[in-house]
Amino acid sequence: MSLESVPEAALTGSLRDYRSPIGSDLVGRTAPFYQWQNLRRQHSVWPYARSTATAPTARCQARTDSGSPFTGINFASQDYLSLSSHPEIKQAAIEAIQTYGVHSAGSAALLGNTANSIALENDLSDFVDGREIVLYPTGWAAGFGAVQGFVRPNDYVVLDVLAHSCLQEGARAATQNIHHHGHLNLEGLTRKLERIRANDTENGILVVTESLFSMHSDTPDIGAMRAICDQYKATLLVDCAHDLGSIGDDGRGHLGLQNMFGAADIIIGSFSKTFASNGGFIAVKDRATAEYLRYYSATHTFSNALSPVQAATISKALQIVRSDEGRTLRRKLMDNILYLRARMQEAGLEVLGDPSPIVPVRVGTEALGRFASRELAAKGGIANLVEYPAVPQGGARFRFQVMAAHSREDIEEVVRVLEQAMKSADLEYRASYESV
């Protein structure tokens, strides 16, 4: 494909442009988005909604959303300890099917719990210092349900500007009193809380952060946030979706590394990154709070419970996470993380954030990112391109997601093909815009 063949419309624009369509035809007004999406698809610069054709291992076969097959080194799947194909976990799933079938067949508020989900609550509670556990069908549902479940219209939510979509959407569903502070900016957080409390000392304030931010691979000072929350009588929620199980010698993530499990009033998490299954949870300090959530957090109350297969899978994954094998896998994972970051930096690539299973590599403009993504896939590298509005405009990046099962050879090869892809993309980008 010649570089001049990619029209400018396929290299510009973003999802935000189509978020608020106008017109009386609610269905018909979606067409402009599809036209833009399809233009990108036709020129192989739409790297989304791809599917795996094999297990999501370190090397896999996949298909584009048009069905075209491709293969490569997989840094796009979230399976940090490489547990999704672990033989003991697959066996646990098989045994759950044989005993319980495949479906929970009800809400957890009714008859949807199973022996497996109750066992998972107990096992997870032991892992997070005896907290009470409420399970959710997805991590997104847990984040949304935590904010919506606790916050009422007169309350306030103060979020890090980069807090996950589920937390932002939960806030919008709960109250109009939403405030944001700069990313990891404790002074900004303090100013927001001070202004709120200067006018309202009666209603609640929920402060929302993440223990590992997924687009930047960085971490807040949880102890400092706890002190600020205490000063202004605010409640602290910490989302540990990406680091629980995968970071720290004991697998307890940054809350564990900072010795701050007790600092968070509300902990939420996801099982889909390290624990080999969809699902999420909220961990709180007492049963009264947990029981309230079971009936007032809509994404728990009005969703089917985790299937017995999911619960068995997660429980077995948690058992491995807490074992010597889990410790070995985390060390292998961190070795891979450090090696990948070092090799990318040696290649002149801009690596963002701190060492974690997420390795963001800055590309630049959205157009350059689209060219680079096309080139990377063609050369046998699989990584997710993240564009505005998920990241700042002009800050497109690849999000490499590292697994314990990646080999040194995988890392060497993906760095080599990424370096080549970036050079090719730069030439295509320059030629495309110089010809305009």
From TrEMBL:
Keywords: Aminotransferase, Transferase. One of its GO terms (molecular function) is pyridoxal phosphate binding. It comes from the Bacteria. Its cofactor is pyridoxal 5'-phosphate. It comes from Paradevosia tibetensis. This is Aminotransferase class I/II-fold pyridoxal phosphate-dependent enzyme. The lineage of its organism: Bacteria, Pseudomonadati, Pseudomonadota, Alphaproteobacteria, Hyphomicrobiales. InterPro entries: Aminotransferase_I/II_large, AON_synthase_class-II, PyrdxlP-dep_Trfase, PyrdxlP-dep_Trfase_major, PyrdxlP-dep_Trfase_small. Residues 73-418 form the Aminotransferase class I/classII large domain.
